Amino acid sequence: MTAALIISIAVLWVLVALLMVALYALSRQVGLLHQRIAPAGALALSGGLKVGDVAPDLELTTLNGDKFGLMDYSHVSRAVLITFISPECTVCEQLMPAVKSIKVKEEKWLDVLLASDGDAEKHHAYVGQKGLKDWTYVLSRELGMTFEVGKLPYSVLLDENGALVAKGLTNTREHIESLFEAKDRGVSSIQEFLRIRQEKVNVGPELSAEIAINE
Amino acid sequence: MSMDPVVIRVIQAFFGVFFCAAAFHKVRFFAETVGIIEAYADQRIRRSLAKGTAAAVIFLEGVIAVLCLFAFDSVVLAAWIVSLLFFYGLVMAANLLAGRRDLDCGCSWAGDATVVDYRLIVRNGALIFLAGLLFLGESSRVLIWLDFFTVGFGAACLSLLYLFVEQSIRNSQLSGVTVR
Fold first, then answer.
1. Which residues of chain A have a CB within 8 Å of the CB of B156?
2. Which residues pair with A155 in a beta bridge?
3. Is B79 within a domain?
């Protein structure tokens, strides 16, 4: 009887210890996964306006023929997300539900402007197909050139004063939200945020304070 | 009310491992530990004082670890452990209240940095509660060989549980970037 009790206690302890090891190993793996799938922010391409530059007050024309200035659009303490798309771009098509959802979700502080260029007829058809009649949809080659848009879909976030906050290729909702995250955290991109954080972890608080001062 | 001696020994052995690992980590990364102390003091102390404080903390943790592992009087030990953990929690809370939220807590065993967080203060509270059990003292039951088996495995399981909690806090800090 005593021997059976001792053996059962021993077996139970070994099992509990193994379970604890497994639990810890699992949590380490979750941590590694978090590090490996760190947020993929929008890929900011070089060229065009730099972060902090105020966008020029371009005169823009909507598909309906209404004219307005870019600075007039980004007023009354609201930020503006300009998303460059094209009817021929399949990724843009996949992105549109996310853009629509973001427009509703962030409506308290953000206006969304769709921009493109090219044949107006195609865009009219596209707007009809996608239910974008209530949206501000502008055709402006000049706007694309100002931000040096080379690939689509591309998004630019202007702050309440019309200054560029963040920009980049936005293939997914996560990419667009990375622009908002960059705005909230006061960095130009999530990549920059991750780089700063990694440096803080690697070099310790003393050097990270120097990095913060230099920035 | 007193505790069974095996429970007291398990808690003591756990804190022995805990402070041993903490002191070893601070010795191994001494320069970083000095930097962390300076950061906790908001760079207001001289480097020599930060070095002295780091050395004192390591010495204190080492002494507590040795006393825990060699079954020193549990009530006196409890007072030391509770005081030290309370002090750590107080320093973290003061920094968090001052808005310094990107400090390395300096409390990791495994090298990965954990940023100061209110959850770490709750964790310290749980550790203080555990150490507080030592104040109850132990009953007079004589330990048999099987109890030492329990002490070894119990301390190992508590240590792994501590590592799991710390890793979970670190994981949630890592995932915080994506949450909007």
1. 17, 20
2. A83, A168
3. yes
Residues 6+ apart with CB under 8 A from A201: B104, B112, B113
In which domain, by residue range, is B134 found?
A: 5-175
pLDDT in tens, B13-62: 999 999 999 999 999 888 888 888 888 888 788 888 999 999 999 999 99
CB-CB contact of A182 with A193 (8 Å) = yes
Cβ contact A17–B157 (<8 Å):
yes
Encode chain A (215 residues) as per-residue pLDDT tens digits: 788 888 888 899 999 999 999 999 999 998 888 777 766 666 666 667 778 888 888 888 888 888 888 877 765 678 889 999 988 888 888 888 888 888 888 888 888 989 988 888 888 888 888 888 888 898 888 888 888 887 888 999 988 888 888 888 888 888 888 888 888 877 666 666 666 666 655 544 444 444 444 43
> ipTM score here?
0.79
Helices (H), chain A: 2-36, 70-73, 90-105, 120-130, 141-146, 173-185, 190-214
Is B112 contained in some domain? yes
- Partner residue opposite B170 with nearest CB, options A10, A31, A200: A31
Determine whether the interchain pair B38/A6 forms a contact, defined as Cβ–Cβ distance below 8 Å: no
d(CA B127, CA A69): 61
d(CA A84, CA A74): 17
Tell me the nearest-neighbour CA distance from B86 into chain A, angstroms.
Answer: 23
Number of structural domains, chain B?
1
CB-CB neighbors (< 8 A) of A205 in chain B:
35-36, 38-39, 103-104
The verdict on residue B180 lying in a domain is no
Which stretch of DSSP H or E encloses residue B155?
A: helix B145-175
The distance of A93 to chain B (nearest Cα, Å) reads 24
